[in-house]
Amino acid sequence: MQDSQIVALLQLSSPALPIGGYSYSQGLEAAIDTQLITDEASAHRWIAQQLEWVLTPCEAPVWLLLFDSWNTCNWERLAHWNAWFLASRETRELRQETEQMAWSLVKLADELAWGSAEARDRLLGLQAVVLPTAHAYACWALGIPRRAGLAAYLFSWLENQTMAALKTVPLGQVAGQRILDQLRLCIPQACTDASRRAASDPPCLHTLAPQLAILSSRHETQYSRLFRS
């Protein structure tokens, strides 16, 4: 990667990016409320399993399919996978999360003129844009390589989950860094597995995570909470 690509990737992955990522816990807060997560070890296990069983089999390969659609200007395929991912969100709050964060990123990409005017028009013309679509667009428009963009997407998710655990378990800063330091090593393999799934014909995807869906549904009416999801 060139220096310009690296700094663009850093900007896109920064916690300062105003898309609301730290407003969400993706079921982690509900898992804490039901005492599935009580300490560093259980937080590490929850995040690791979600990376392996939820993101790698579905969200990561869909991100790659969307990036490829932007790269080849295949608008029909782009609309298909954007709609497919939205339909795969099992609960109201998971759908609201991906739409809100995507809307914020789309607005930012448009205001900063990332990509060509034609490509931005295509992005703005999509109904109910999801976060993988918007993030893949930003990486493609900024000239960030495909695998590096996916790795950054997964690390941003990992960092968000760790920060949610720090605030709500709660955990200390060093415990959070231990979780990040150990689980970041899983991201290269997750990218490899996602690439294999995306390259299959048809793509090898699954979203079976019933406990996450149940906890997300419960979180929508949880009595006291810090996070929007």
From TrEMBL:
Gene3D superfamilies (alphabetical): Urease accessory protein UreF
Keyword field contains Cytoplasm: yes
Keywords, alphabetical: Chaperone, Cytoplasm, Nickel insertion
Transmembrane segments: none
Gene Ontology annotations for the cellular component aspect, listed alphabetically: cytoplasm
GO terms assigned for molecular function: nickel cation binding
Source organism superkingdom: Bacteria
Subcellular location(s) of the protein: Cytoplasm
Main localization category: cytoplasm
Family statement drawn from the similarity comment of this UniProt entry: Belongs to the UreF family.
HAMAP family, A to Z: UreF
Subunit-structure text: UreD, UreF and UreG form a complex that acts as a GTP-hydrolysis-dependent molecular chaperone, activating the urease apoprotein by helping to assemble the nickel containing metallocenter of UreC. The UreE protein probably delivers the nickel.
Function, as annotated: Required for maturation of urease via the functional incorporation of the urease nickel metallocenter.
Protein name per its UniProtKB record: Urease accessory protein UreF
Species for this entry: Pollutimonas thiosulfatoxidans
Lineage, highest ranks first: Bacteria, Pseudomonadati, Pseudomonadota, Betaproteobacteria, Burkholderiales
